[in-house]
Amino acid sequence: MLIRMVRNTGSAETHPGTGRSDVRDGPIAGGILAGSVRPDAPGTGTTLAHLSARDVRIEYRSPGSSDADSTLAVDNANLELQRSDFVCVVGPSGCGKTTFLNAVAGFLPIQGGSLELDGKDIPGPGPDRAMVFQQASLLPWRTVLDNVTYGLELGRKLKRAQARDRARGLLDTVGLSGFGDRYPAQLSGGMQQRVNLARALAVDPELLLLDEPFASIDAQTREVMQAELLRICTARHVTALFVTHDITEAAFLADRVCVFSPRPGHIVREITVPFERPRDQRLRRSREFMELVDEIAEALYGRAGIPDEELR
């Protein structure tokens, strides 16, 4: 059975016949899995969490404004990821899930709690993390190949020939072999996002962060890209934290789905996905998948009374 530590206000429940266990009705105190420990538990010989967020608090404040004018975006957010985990975060608009992701990326400071990668505080952006945004934001004057090598050029860890060889291999991985000499304007939206993903993977990040990367592409291409992303992450043992409004996307991609509350955001429920990876499109039509989607939806709608349109 999967075990988590929860606050006294919550309870853990295991679903008979699925092997799935989740947390109900209470914030998760670190989301600790069986066999994992907190970084401050000495002498156990077990591995630290790869990413650890404990009681994270994030506020927005305009320059020159007082404490009374600040906006509390995230409060008491707790989450742990082990290496090779794929975790999706869902929640209503404005709940702080992207704010939390930006803090993990190092783009935003936290005002309380702790945020650690491999037991070390996250002081700011670093090469150990890569972000895939909603828009591909490719450099239009650079070829596809040169867009993929851009991060490697900034890091200056590889010679030009080595960087280009790595980029060609990644373009092949994302299904764009032969497109290296094209320019972004010559690609479809889905192809541009493939380049965006290849660029992020090129720097070989410890943690891949994704902020609704498929939100702007059509539904059919989105499903294909979801399957491709999961295949790549599984094959390359990528650790990923993925923010989305789409609960079917979360159910298809994730090992665990974390449900954020309305602002100030914190994780109110964590649901373990019982399906093995990799997954194919037939899974979406199965009864078990639809039951999982309903369970995630109930966690969103039932807890906060969130209107349907805010979650689409």
Average the pLDDT over all residues and give the rounded result.
82
Unreliable sequence segments: 1-45, 304-308
Shape: globular
The end-to-end distance, rounded to whole angstroms, is: 33 Å
Total helices: the number is 7
Helical fraction equals 25-40%
Number of strands: 12
Mind telling me the C-alpha Rg? 20 Å
> Can you list the strand order of the major beta sheet?
1-2-12-11-5-10-9-8
Largest sheet: 8 strands, mixed
- Which structural class do the helices and strands define? alpha/beta
Order of helices and strands: EEEEEHEEEHHHEHEHEEH
DSSP strand (E) fraction? 15-25%
Describe, in plain words, how this protein is organized in 3D.
The structure is a single chain. With 312 residues, the protein is α/β, with parallel strands linked by helices. It has helices at residues 97-105, 144-155, 160-173, 189-202, 219-236, 247-253, 287-304; strands at 11-15, 20-24, 51-60, 71-81, 86-90, 112-117, 120-121, 129-132, 207-211, 240-243, 256-260, 267-272. It is built from seven helices and twelve strands. α5 (219-236) links the parallel β9 (207-211) and β10. α2 (144-155) packs across α3 (160-173) and α2 (144-155) packs parallel to α4 (189-202). The radius of gyration is 20 Å and the shape is globular. Residues 1-45 and 304-308 have low confidence and may be disordered.
